[in-house]
Write a structure and sequence with these properties.
Distance between the termini: 40 Å
Order of helices and strands: HHHHHHHHHHHHEEEEEH
Structural class: alpha+beta
Mean pLDDT: 88
Number of helices: 13
Shape: elongated
Strand content: 5-15%
Low-confidence stretches: 1-43
Number of strands: 5
Largest sheet: 5 strands, antiparallel
Helix content: 40-55%
Length: 335
């Protein structure tokens, strides 16, 4: 603890700290090389806390309604549409957690909880309806060549007629991007069953963060000149990954969805680590740091503190994300 305080406060061991971090950086590249040819895979069980506890059982149940969908895919759609907000309403009059427009709801809404009504604002109806609508679309294109799930998603975006006409995902940039976005985002809601590949950009993100050690914290800080180069927790992680070409969302609970989620004993330097007072709900995450190895992270902790090394093994540790470029790009700009 004395050595760590020297790194943080005194600055007398800056060279030692730099050497420590650079060893970890080298380790990232070594592991990246060793794992480059491994194959990711596994089931689509939901990652820890990725879906708010109030909706987890609904997503798990209805995400298995038909072969074209799975719980992680359904979770990705709900997050992309509303950020799991049951009162969301878009300028186009899309409503509820699944963002149904009135005409589509009139045709495809179901009474998911069996209480005698179909309420677009009630997740107990809207989540089953989203799954049911996906499966209906899949049935329309079941004889089309190619991947059934991708064809279903393309039908959601462009209509089943376009998928049938082109014999698969149609050559529309918007539709192709939508299919890639949801299938990529799906991976951030799925619990991996094998070790996930390390980010090639992790070393650069760590290098940036360690150069900010000792910088005073600023609530809402993103490191601008007007802010004196100061950061809050998610501002630091966003800036660190921006330097290696990955654009993360501004807030921590959205950064959690920027890639798959390694287990605690699989953490590698560069992983984002998250903390929450509600360990069942990623939307309640309140803090994030960049893991550097040895049970420590670099983070911007709170007002009155400086960017420093902190331990991650605390009661409020929520989980981690291995940031990927595609995962970050798949995130909606607003949720």
């Amino acid at each position: 603890m004395t050595v760590r305080k020297a790194w943080i406060v005194g600055g007398v061991a800056v060279g030692a700290a730099l050497s420590f971090v650079m060893l970890l950086v080298v380790g990232v590249y070594v592991v990246a090389g060793n794992l480059a040819n491994t194959v990711s895979g596994g089931t689509k069980a939901l990652a820890k806390g990725a879906v708010p506890a109030a909706y987890q059982s609904l997503v798990q149940k209805w995400g298995n309604l038909c072969p074209a969908i799975n719980p992680a895919l359904l979770a990705a759609q709900l997050y992309q549409e509303s950020g799991f907000n049951p009162t969301a309403k878009s300028p186009a009059a899309a409503q509820g957690i699944a963002q149904f427009i009135p005409g589509t709801w009139a045709t495809h809404g179901v009474d998911g909880d069996g209480d005698g009504d179909k309420d677009v604002w009630d997740p107990n109806d809207a989540i089953p309806s989203a799954a049911s609508y996906d499966c209906s679309l899949a049935s329309y294109v079941k004889d089309v060549p190619g991947n059934l799930t991708e064809n279903m998603l393309a039908s959601y975006n462009a209509g089943a007629y376009a998928v049938i006409k082109y014999g698969g995902v149609p050559p529309y940039r918007e539709t192709q991007n939508y299919v890639k976005q949801i299938t990529t985002l799906e991976e951030s809601f799925a619990a991996p069953v094998s070790r996930v590949d390390p980010s090639k950009q992790a070393a650069g993100a760590i290098d940036y963060a360690q150069k900010k050690l000792g910088t005073p914290y600023l609530w809402g800080g993103t490191g601008t000149a007007e802010q004196g180069g100061r950061f809050d927790c998610s501002g630091l992680t966003q800036a660190a990954y921006e330097t290696v070409g990955i654009t993360l969302p501004r807030v921590a609970n959205d950064q959690y969805n920027a890639g798959p989620h390694p287990a605690r004993d699989e953490l590698l330097p560069g992983d984002l680590v998250f903390f929450s007072d509600d360990l069942t709900n990623s939307r309640a995450i309140r803090h994030v740091g960049i893991y550097v190895g040895g049970g420590y992270m670099i983070d911007a902790p709170r007002t009155g503190a400086v960017i420093r090394f902190d331990p991650i093994d605390t009661p409020d540790y929520f989980g981690a994300t291995r940031v990927t470029e595609d995962g970050a790009k798949a995130l909606p700009t607003t949720v």
